[in-house]
UniProtKB/TrEMBL annotation:
Membrane-traversing stretches: none
A GO-annotated cellular component: chloroplast
PPR repeats: 152-186, 188-222, 223-257, 258-292, 293-327, 328-362, 363-397, 433-467, 468-502, 503-537, 538-572
Protein family according to the UniProt entry: Belongs to the PPR family. P subfamily.
GO annotation, biological process: chloroplast-nucleus signaling pathway; mitochondria-nucleus signaling pathway
Keywords: Repeat
Keyword Repeat: yes
Name of the protein described by the UniProt record: Pentatricopeptide repeat-containing protein
Top-level taxon of the source organism: Eukaryota
DNA sequence: TTAGGGTTAG
């Protein structure tokens, strides 16, 4: 059907179809249309359809198939519909995020001689930038000038967004500066929003705040959107107090807060279990006539579940329903995960089964949550049955689902089933990703197959795939646990030759391996190297070293180390507490250390 | 241009 449609297109050879039935454009010079688009195609077929019958139907376009059907009808008309009709169709396709479809149609209409206007050119820029092809987007700028159009905010916004999306932060900043300095277009709320969002997502919240301050002094003042974006980013960076400060600054500066502003802050606070403040904010929000929506409720339900308070979360769900808010697939997913985390997978299953009756179709992630829950309860048959059900329900098993199943099977020591599923995955054309390799390496190590993990690592190297420090860290850990410290050390020493830089987890893995083998001196050497390379120690590393010293019986040294550790804001974790308890029982700790432990960690 | 889900190395 689809191929038939394209056979009628004048340039059907440019399209190809992938396995999922969607089509994409062969890579071509994005500006080739410049040479073609003025040429009028003369051999159009007319079936007499009136253009007026079509123009109102674009809202009913719900996917590439609909788009192509309408497009096919449009190009059969004589005379051809005007550029505005094509504009509306393209705009609908862009809304559906079918960028390659939009670009292909664009190429075709330009070949058919439909004149290109600035709206269409901006859409083309947007399509390239949204599909990680910002360089093509930039090259379209040339077309603007050739056609006498001046790029505007709608041209530069997607370009900036695209650069941020491709993690080309410096270039995005450079372009933004150029736009401002040279007055390339009006710099309004919209473009500021793109830059604030881009900086935040790039992890540069501090610079986003600076930009807010710059905006305050200019003609385009920051608004609710800009503040909400920055508050959210601060919360995600764990800086909730700084986020609160900005939040309280808003009314002082005459900026309204909306449900998004409240929701992101509630998210930040509830992840830190600051429930008292969540309650205050909730009340304040309603007093201000801003009402929580399905996302706000879902945020709270999710946070309660992650804290193990699934029954409370279920109460919130009931309140939500009483207040006529309709829970969606994400709300139920959060609750299902909450039950699974408590090992109450049957209750999670009840929710899952009740979803279709409530008009909600479970997503692949809903399946993933439940499959993971079953594996954690060792219910392999139920897990695999659900996995097999996914395609039967018309859903595409994602890489994430395959990863969950592979990991679950490894956890059940079903290595032969892992291979079978991995083969199936490849046969079905599903590309494995970075996580798949991590799961395979970790699963092989965890099942006593460290040598095979090493072979897989070699294979990854030989294939010239992107090497990642995490692969090596996993295998080094496996080697240490298999009493093969020498091989782990060799791998560790070789990292720089592969262009890889060890990170805090790599160092702590090796330190742990050395401590377990009683090689405290070597562990100290690695610690020294780590500090020389300015790799900051985290809580887990401090605990690993502390346990290593404790096990060596050097209690005076352990006391000194604990003092430093606590001074830097880290406290003994669960594994350390267990070790301390067993040492206490054996009465092996000295008095100084006992006093120190009591002072720093009353809970342990 | 702003908010929510599973898996993800010590």
């Amino acid at each position: 059907m689809k191929k038939g449609l394209f056979a009628q297109l004048p340039f059907s050879s440019r399209f190809c179809f992938n396995k999922s039935g969607t089509f994409h454009l062969f890579s071509r010079d994005p500006l080739h249309f410049m040479s073609d688009f003025r040429c009028l195609s003369t051999n159009l077929v007319s079936n007499g359809t009136s253009p007026h019958k079509l123009w109102f139907e674009f809202d009913n376009v719900n996917g590439p198939d609909d788009a192509l059907s309408i497009y096919n009808m449009m190009i059969k008309m004589k005379p051809l519909p005007g550029v505005r009709r094509f504009n509306s169709l393209l705009s609908r396709i862009v809304k559906l995020k079918q960028y390659s479809v939009a670009l292909s149609i664009f190429n075709d209409i330009s070949n058919l001689g439909v004149p290109v206007n600035i709206y269409i050119l901006n859409m083309v820029v947007n399509c390239y930038c949204s599909s990680h092809r910002v360089d093509f987007g930039l090259s379209v700028l040339g077309a603007f000038f050739k056609l006498g159009y001046i790029p505007d905010e709608s041209t530069f916004s997607p370009l900036l967004k695209g650069l941020f999306l491709e993690n080309r932060i410096a270039e995005a900043q450079q372009l933004f500066r150029k736009i401002v300095r040279e007055g390339l277009c009006e710099v309004g709320n919209f473009i500021f929003g793109v830059v604030v969002d881009g900086l935040c997502k790039a992890g540069n919240t501090a610079m986003a705040i600076q930009l807010l301050r710059v905006m305050e002094k200019g003609s385009c003042r920051p608004g609710t959107h800009h503040y909400s974006t920055v508050i959210d980013s601060l919360c995600k960076d764990g800086m909730v107090d700084a986020a609160m400060k900005l939040f309280y600054e808003m009314p002082q500066k005459g900026i309204n807060r909306n449900v998004v502003t409240y929701s992101v802050l509630i998210h930040g606070l509830s992840t830190l279990s600051r429930w008292k403040e969540v309650k205050t904010l909730w009340k304040e929000m309603i007093d201000c006539n801003i009402f929580p929506n399905v996302i706000t409720f879902s945020i709270v339900i999710d946070a309660l579940c992650k804290e193990g308070l699934v029954d409370k979360a279920h109460d919130v769900l009931n309140v939500m329903i009483q207040k006529n808010h309709v829970p969606n697939v994400l709300t139920y997913g959060a609750l299902m995960d909450g039950y699974c985390l408590q090992g109450r997978v049957d209750e999670a299953r009840e929710i899952f089964d009740s979803m279709p009756g409530r008009g909600i179709i479970p997503s692949t992630i809903s399946y993933g949550i439940l499959i993971n829950g079953y594996f954690k309860k060792m219910k392999i048959d139920e897990a695999m049955h659900l996995f097999r059900e996914i395609p039967l329900k018309g859903l595409e098993p994602s890489v994430g689902i395959y990863n969950t199943v592979l990991q679950g099977l490894f956890g059940m020591h079903k290595c032969s089933s892992v291979l079978q599923i991995f083969d199936e995955m490849q046969a079905a054309g599903h590309k494995h990703d970075f996580h798949t390799y991590c799961i395979l390496l970790d699963g092989l190590c965890g099942n006593g197959l460290v040598e095979q993990a090493l072979s897989l690592l070699n294979e990854i190297e030989k294939k010239g795939l992107h090497l990642h420090i995490q692969y090596y860290t996993i295998v080094m850990d496996g080697l240490c646990k298999a009493q093969k410290l020498d091989t782990a050390r060799a791998l560790f020493v070789d990292l720089p030759s592969k262009g890889l830089e060890p990170n805090v987890i790599t160092y702590s893995t090796m330190i742990n391996g050395c401590c377990e083998k009683g090689q405290l001196e070597e562990a100290k050497d690695i610690l020294l190297k780590m500090e020389q390379r300015r790799c900051l120690l985290d809580g887990v590393t401090y605990n690993i070293i502390f346990r290593g010293i404790l096990k060596s019986g050097e209690f005076d040294e352990a006391t000194k180390f604990l003092d430093i550790m606590v001074g830097r804001g880290f406290s003994p974790d669960g594994a350390t507490a267990t070790l301390l308890c067993s040492l206490l029982q054996k009465k092996e700790l000295n008095l100084n250390l006992l006093n120190m432990i009591e002072k720093c960690a009353p809970s342990t």
